[in-house]
Design goal:
The complex is a heterodimer of chains A (283) and B (408). Chain A is mainly α. Helix content of chain A is 77%, strand content 2%. Chain A has a single domain (56-280), classed as MetI-like (MetI-like fold, Orthogonal Bundle), CATH 1.10.3720.10. Chain B starts with 30 loop residues before the first strand and ends with a helix. In chain B, a hairpin with a 3-residue loop joins β16 (341-350) and β17. Classes of the chains: A mainly alpha (283), B alpha+beta (408). Bound molecules: adenosine-5'-triphosphate and magnesium ion. Residues 40-41, 45, 63, 65-71 of chain B line the site of adenosine-5'-triphosphate.
């Protein structure tokens, strides 16, 4: 009976994946190899021109900028998220749950709406500038909105929980007795951090990095709302090719390229995680 | 990071401190605890503990689970702060001094090996913190691993080792630093009998060679008695008794100590007659501050040595070690005038070197007697149910007042 159930559910999942993941992906790959057509969107002949166009400095620049912004957002998430995750993991029971709740609460709100919230804070007459003036600042209001800075701020805000949660998981598992042992052997604060804490929480850092970096490449609406009408992220490029420029094959090629790059990153991550686990002795 | 290291470095491998412990009593104590109180969540664990640990001494803390042994070690190492009282290490008050600034190393009860480092990396950790040159680190690590018989295991990770091997790595990781004081928390418990004996020997040799002071926590009575210069028996956060192993075993100060250290027959009795200031007989193991007396145990009168200040009519407990008991079969003559119980053998246990018998006396006492095999006495073996007479070697008992003994 259980056997039948397991087979049925496995079959259902396989069917689901085939229809909603494999098939669309194949369609996107196929589209990326076709030629643009004004009324049918795509037409023959098969071509690799779409991929060649990605090397055009205009688009290659978007790709490079996008990776830069995503990397910056990831590093900022790490710098903010690590101490936060540490405090949460080491807090006493009632506080720990409260803090964890605070991390998770933003998930209850649509992230597009949260991007608009950031906009309200950063706008020329927004909360941040008002606060600055209230504190006695008397220069020009800061032009923060529609800059790469605003996009990074939005990405950090939206993606921070994805950094904090995996970090929390590894820090909570970290045995405080190992830190006592290190102190006992003469390691000061910095050495305890570098020699024991960092290597043992590395899997969480890598996991959080992947969970922030990959979405950061594609969150086009954050860039749309906060970065103005510029193609700052690869996600914007893909979206605009499909919806604005109506160049499906090129949008598909950019999309496939992004997926392949993400796949490579994930592969590198799992390889490093496997090595880290070998080090820590967990199968 | 380690500028606060208070000790002259043990660098160069030459650290001659032999025989320093011989005159340790003349030096100020290495570690001195005064009036230490410690409570966790309002529950008192240590209650006014005073303890001096002398240089080069092998001190053992003995006591039931949860009595605060680990807490004492953690206070000395600096992982806990006392609620009251002071701790001095090498004459210096260490209040507020973090563990990394104390020249003390711990072998943790749970090993606490670094999972991301190899055996070599674990053992080298303390030396790397002290910025010892690479070449010397490698030599000293190899030396420490040889001491714990783990040469050749350098590249393994802790999870690739058995429990006993992990314990020995933890031992090497602490030993390699040649600390002033080494704190060991049940650090031989995971080893088999033979290996444990060898490690005990190695630790004693290191104590002599390097003059390291050992504070050792163990549950193993035999280990405590065999290794220690001094045993401290803890009971509920207080020192129940301290002294050389022999004194602890042969002259327990309370019923708690008598019962906790080794096996003991405890017999309730009443003093019938106490004689003032008698001379102790020659075969008495100890004679300080005692008086000859007669005690009634279940209707039999025995001659004993009662503590000074005892009086007739007082309720006492008479403690006799099983190996001091004597069992006489039906055909065996009793020494002249020896007081004894009559009884029957109800249990026999073969223990290798000894044979343990449980005797039930006609007055209802259950007594354990432990007899060594004797090639010359073929009829040594008493069959179950045999009627026997039991007594003990004269004056080898300990008499304790019932009121203090009544605590446990
Ligand atoms: N961090 C802590 N928080 C609360 N209670 C503690 C803490 N550490 C120890 N205790 C309590 O203090 C008492 C003494 O503990 P300790 O670990 O010193 O015992 P122990 O003598 O080493 O026992 P064992 O032989 O089982 O290791 C125990 O009752 C324990 O529950
Ligand atoms: Mg303990």
């Amino acid at each position: 009976m259980q056997h039948v159930f397991r087979r049925a559910s496995t079959g259902l999942i396989a069917l689901w994946l085939a229809v909603f993941v494999l098939l669309p992906t194949l369609m996107v790959v196929a589209t990326s190899l076709l030629t643009r057509h004004d009324s049918h969107f795509v037409s023959l002949p098969l071509t690799l021109d779409n991929y060649a166009r990605l090397f055009d400095p205009l688009y290659a620049g978007v790709l490079v900028d996008s990776f830069g912004l995503a990397a910056l957002a990831t590093v900022l998430c790490l710098l903010v998220g690590y101490p936060f995750a540490w405090i949460v993991a080491r807090a006493r029971a009632p506080w720990r749950h409260l803090l964890l709740l605070l991390v998770i609460v933003p998930f209850w709100t649509n992230s597009l709406i949260r991007a608009y919230a950031v906009k309200l804070v950063l706008a020329t007459n927004g909360a941040l500038n008002s606060a600055l003036f209230a504190l006695g600042y008397s220069g020009e209001p800061l032009q923060l909105l529609y800059t790469p800075f605003a996009v990074v701020a939005g990405l950090v805000y939206v993606l921070l929980p994805f950094m904090i949660l995996p970090l929390y998981a590894v820090i909570e598992k970290l045995d405080p007795r190992l830190l006592e042992a290190a102190a006992d052997l003469g390691a000061g604060r910095l050495q305890r951090f570098v020699r024991v804490i960092l290597p043992l929480t590395l899997p969480g850092i890598v996991a959080g990095g992947v969970l922030v970096f990959l979405p950061a490449l594609g969150l086009f609406y954050v860039s749309d709302v906060l970065g103005g009408a510029k193609d700052l992220l690869v996600g914007n490029l893909v979206k605009n090719q499909f919806l604005v420029a109506r160049d499906w094959p090129f949008g598909a090629a950019a999309s496939v390229t992004l997926v392949v790059l993400m796949g490579l990153l994930l592969w590198a991550w799992s390889a490093s995680a496997r090595r880290a686990n070998q080090r820590i002795g967990e199968p | 990071m380690n500028a606060s290291d208070p000790q002259p470095p043990a660098a160069g491998g030459a650290n001659p401190a032999p025989a320093a412990h011989r005159d340790g009593a003349l030096q100020p104590p290495v570690v001195s605890l005064r009036g230490i109180r410690k409570a966790f969540d309002g529950k008192t664990v240590l209650d006014g503990l005073d303890l001096d640990i002398r240089h080069g001494e092998f001190l053992t803390l003995l006591g039931p689970s949860g009595c605060g042994k680990t807490t004492v070690l953690r206070l000395i190492a600096g992982f806990e702060q006392a609620d009251a009282g002071s701790i001095h290490i090498d004459g210096r008050d260490v209040a507020g001094l973090p563990p990394d600034a104390r020249h003390v190393n711990t072998v943790f009860q749970n090993y606490a090996l670094f999972p991301h480092l190899t055996v070599h990396g674990n053992v080298a950790f303390g030396l790397e913190m002290k910025k010892v040159p690479r070449g010397e680190i490698d030599a000293r690590v190899a030396d420490a691993l040889a001491t714990v018989q783990l040469a050749g295991y350098e590249k393994r990770r802790p999870h690739e080792l058995s429990g006993g091997q992990q314990q020995r790595v933890a031992l090497a990781r602490a030993l390699v630093n040649r600390p002033r004081v080494l704190l060991l928390d049940e650090s031989l418990s995971a080893l088999d009998y033979k290996l444990r004996k060898q490690m005990q020997g190695e630790l004693k040799a290191l104590q002599r060679k390097l003059g390291i002071t050992f504070v050792f926590v163990t549950h193993d009575q035999e280990e405590a008695l065999a290794m220690s210069d001094r045993v401290v028996v803890l009971d509920a956060g207080r020192i129940a008794q301290q002294g050389p192993p022999r004194e602890i075993y042969e002259r327990p100060a309370s019923l708690f100590v008598a019962r906790f250290v080794g096996e003991a027959n405890v017999m309730d009795g009443t003093l019938l007659h106490v004689q003032a200031h008698g001379d102790a007989p020659a075969n008495c193991r100890w004679n300080g501050g005692t008086q000859p007396a007669t005690v009634d145990i279940g209707g039999v009168a025995f001659r004993v040595r009662a503590p000074a200040g005892s009086h007739a009519g007082q309720a006492v407990a008479v403690v006799v070690r099983p190996e001091d008991m004597r069992v006489y079969g039906p055909g065996e003559p009793l020494p002249d005038g020896m007081a004894h119980f009559s009884g029957r053998i109800v249990e026999r246990t073969y223990k290798g070197a000894t044979l343990d018998s449980v005797i039930e006396t006609s007055s209802g006492l259950r007594l354990i007697a432990s007899e060594f095999f004797d090639e010359d006495a073929p009829d040594f073996d008493h069959p179950l149910g045999e009627p026997v007479r039991v007594s003990w070697v004269a004056d080898w008992e300990t008499v304790l007042p019932r009121d203090t003994a009544g605590a446990r």
